[in-house]
Every structure is written in structure tokens, then in C-alpha cells.
Specification:
about 400 residues, alpha+beta, Jelly Rolls, eight-stranded mixed beta sheet, five-stranded mixed beta sheet, disordered N terminus, IPNS-like_FE2OG_OXY
Length: about 400
């Protein structure tokens, strides 16, 4: 499967289709093209973007996600580490979301990464499509995922990189240069440095999560030390009918943990907990962290992968940067023995990240039941073996 290496140059959709984007926006053609510059000003959004009313009810309150100060943890202060671990435990057994501050990531790098994303998304569509994402790849640009889906399209465009810690450090600059030109070398270097900072932070968070679960503090750090990751830049353009659509539909992340940087003061992230949607407001100097399906399985269901979504804005566009930590593709996801009590049934079968990733790309659109559906699919598939049995 294509995952940890860049894709070659691909122009998709064809250029003649791009040039007729206004005509296509109102047609029944399956080859729909999302051009943020054009569609942000349309009084009525295309029907492909209209979501069912049941999935777009408004948020009623703000989520009071715990704010975890990592300074004492980094300094090795025992009391501070215990407090941080308790906050993580409380959040992850409830809804799976918390924020981290004093995380050690340079503010100038954060600002540079956001500014670079803005520069890319302001490019003409024909230029962005030179880095068009290929099927089953995590590299490149996509507009509203219209290459994969024909309804309930998200009102956003993304630029993604798959990052293997063992790969060449020039892999992101090389990809952008090959697809967009030498003038994008600096952009590649910015995201190379940002990915490295996110890798370091994610492994530290995994160590803290291990402490919070009563597992050897090095266990999850080592489990993910040779892992892979996905870096995604999100752009949510203005929308003239924001009440009819979503920037990202309700879903649980299939990955292990997500580290999200929200831009400035533009709201958008919402979490479903306590029977309703709750807004997670951007917090200066903080990253939002949430548990994904892979880690929920790795913790034998102790920590929760929570339903969340992104809404859009009529007045202002919004950008965010998401870093998804994943295990090495062939590493078996199995909870440590201490998280499976004697006589307790395993909640999920063994699997590899490659299997789950492929399932979400070819079999199933990620939603609230991705992990449960994937587990059922594994156990019923012809490839089932003793490795998959949910034994203690």
C-alpha cells in the first residue's frame, strides 16, 4: 500500500474540468471539483455539501477540556507529573480530549507553519492540483474529498504528508519540489521541522499517557518510537450557508492520538459528549490532544476515542494543523497485559495499523463506529486466524 513514500506528479481532475468548475458545480456529474476561491462566494452551496439535519445540530455549550501543563513533567517534577497524569486520565476516560501548554514547541515555528499553510491554500486551484493526492495515499492535496465521495462532502481542502521517522529528512521538501517546483523548498523545510517537533511532543505525551494508565512509562513511547505519522493542513473557507454543511463530518480518528493546532480566534472544533455537541475554543499557546481508535484498542477500551467534527463560518475562513501519530505499519496493536485483567475479555482483536488504514481508505468511511465495524470485519474475514481472537 502507498503510505510512507511520496506520490509522483498527478494532475487530477483534468485541467479542462477545472476550467469549467462553475458549470460542474451545478451539474449531476460525479467529477465534482471544489474550488474554494469560487465556492466561498456562492449564495447557495452545491447539493453535494448538504449534510443531514441530524448530523449538523448546533453546539449547546463549551467543552471544559482539561489543560495539562507539561513544564513540570519535562523537568521531572514528581508532583507536577502526577497532577498532569491525573488530568490526562480524567479526560481520556470521559471524552478523550485535553489541551497541553508549555509543550516546548517554538511559537515562531507554529506561526511559520500556519503562515505557510495560508500561502499554499491561496494558490490558484490548478497549481494546488499539481500535488493532487492519489488513491490510498496520504500524500498531497484534496478539495472536499470529492475524489472519494459524492455526497456529504466536507467544506474544506487539505494538504497532507505521511511522515516516517526512519525516512530521509528531506522527504517533504523533495515531494513539494517534485510536484510544485523549487520555490516550495522553504515550505517543505517548515513542515519538516514542524513534523519533527510534533513527533517529539507526541512521544512525550505517550509517556505521560503510559503513566496515567499505570503502565511502564516507557512502554508506549517505545511502541511508537519507530512509528509513522500523518501531517495535515486544513483550510475551511467561508461558506454562505454554514448551517447546511460541515467542515469535517462527525467521526472518530482511526489513528492513535491527534495533536491539533487551532488557528487564532476562529471557532470550529466541536466534540460530542454528555448528549450534545460542545465547542472547543482555540487557546493561545495550546495544542488540542485527542485519543483515536487505535489507542482505544491499545488501552483495551479504557481510554475513549470521541466523536468530533468541524463547523464552518460565513464570515471568516479557518485553518488548522493536525498531526496524527500511528504505529509502524506492521506492528501488532495489542494492549499490554496489565490492561487486561485476569478473566477479562479483550475488547478488540489484534490488528496492524496498515490493516486499519487500508480499511478506512477502501472499505469504510470513518464515522462513530469505525473501530467496532473494523473489528467485526476482521473477525469475519477469510484472513482471520488465532492472532485475531479476543482472548485475555
Amino acid at each position: 500500500m502507498e503510505y510512507s513514500s511520496p506520490t509522483s506528479l498527478l494532475l487530477c481532475p483534468p485541467i479542462d474540468l477545472i476550467q469549467n468548475v462553475e458549470k460542474d458545480a451545478g451539474s449531476d456529474s460525479s467529477s465534482f471539483v471544489f474550488d474554494s476561491t469560487h465556492h466561498r462566494n456562492q449564495a447557495s452551496i452545491p447539493r453535494q455539501f448538504v449534510w443531514p439535519a441530524s448530523e449538523r445540530s448546533g453546539a449547546s455549550n463549551e467543552l471544559q477540556a482539561p489543560v495539562v501543563d507539561l513544564d513540570g513533567f519535562f523537568r521531572g517534577d514528581r508532583a507536577s507529573t502526577e497532577l498532569a497524569a491525573e488530568l490526562v486520565r480524567s479526560a481520556c476516560t470521559d471524552h478523550g480530549f485535553f489541551q497541553v501548554v508549555n509543550h516546548g514547541v517554538s511559537p515562531s515555528l507554529v506561526a511559520d507553519a500556519l503562515a505557510t499553510a495560508e500561502e499554499f491554500f491561496k494558490l490558484p486551484l490548478v497549481h494546488k492540483l499539481r500535488a493532487c493526492r492519489k488513491p490510498r495515499s496520504m500524500w498531497g492535496y484534496t478539495g472536499a474529498h470529492s475524489d472519494r465521495f459524492s455526497s456529504k462532502l466536507p467544506w474544506k481542502e487539505t494538504l497532507s504528508f505521511a511522515n516516517d521517522g526512519m525516512a530521509s529528512q528531506s522527504v517533504i521538501p523533495d515531494y513539494l519540489i517534485a510536484n510544485l517546483g523549487t520555490e516550495f523548498h522553504r515550505m517543505g523545510k517548515v513542515y519538516e521541522r514542524y513534523c519533527k517537533a510534533m513527533e517529539d511532543l507526541s512521544l512525550s505525551i505517550m509517556e505521560l499517557i503510559g503513566i496515567s494508565l499505570g503502565v511502564d512509562r516507557s512502554h508506549f513511547r517505545e511502541f511508537f518510537s519507530d512509528g509513522s505519522s500523518i501531517m495535515r493542513c486544513n483550510n475551511y473557507p467561508q461558506c454562505q450557508e454554514p448551517e447546511l454543511t460541515l467542515g469535517t463530518g462527525p467521526h472518530c480518528d482511526p489513528t492513535s492520538i491527534t495533536i491539533l493546532l487551532q488557528q487564532g480566534d476562529v471557532d470550529g472544533l466541536e466534540v460530542f459528549t454528555g448528549g450534545g455537541w460542545r465547542l472547543v475554543r482555540p487557546m493561545s499557546g495550546a495544542f488540542v490532544v485527542n485519543i483515536g481508535d487505535t489507542f482505544m484498542a491499545l488501552s483495551n477500551g479504557r481510554y475513549k476515542s470521541c466523536l468530533h467534527r468541524a463547523v464552518v463560518n460565513r464570515i471568516r475562513e479557518r485553518r488548522s494543523l493536525a498531526f496524527f501519530l500511528c504505529p509502524r505499519e506492521d506492528r501488532v496493536v495489542r494492549p499490554p497485559g496489565c490492561l487486561v485483567e485476569q478473566g477479562e475479555a479483550r475488547k478488540y482483536p489484534d490488528f496492524t495499523w496498515a490493516e486499519l488504514f487500508d480499511f478506512t481508505q477502501t472499505q469504510y468511511r470513518a464515522d462513530t463506529r469505525t473501530l467496532q465495524t473494523f473489528a467485526q470485519w476482521l473477525l469475519s474475514s477469510n484472513t482471520s486466524s488465532s492472532r485475531r481472537l479476543c482472548s485475555g
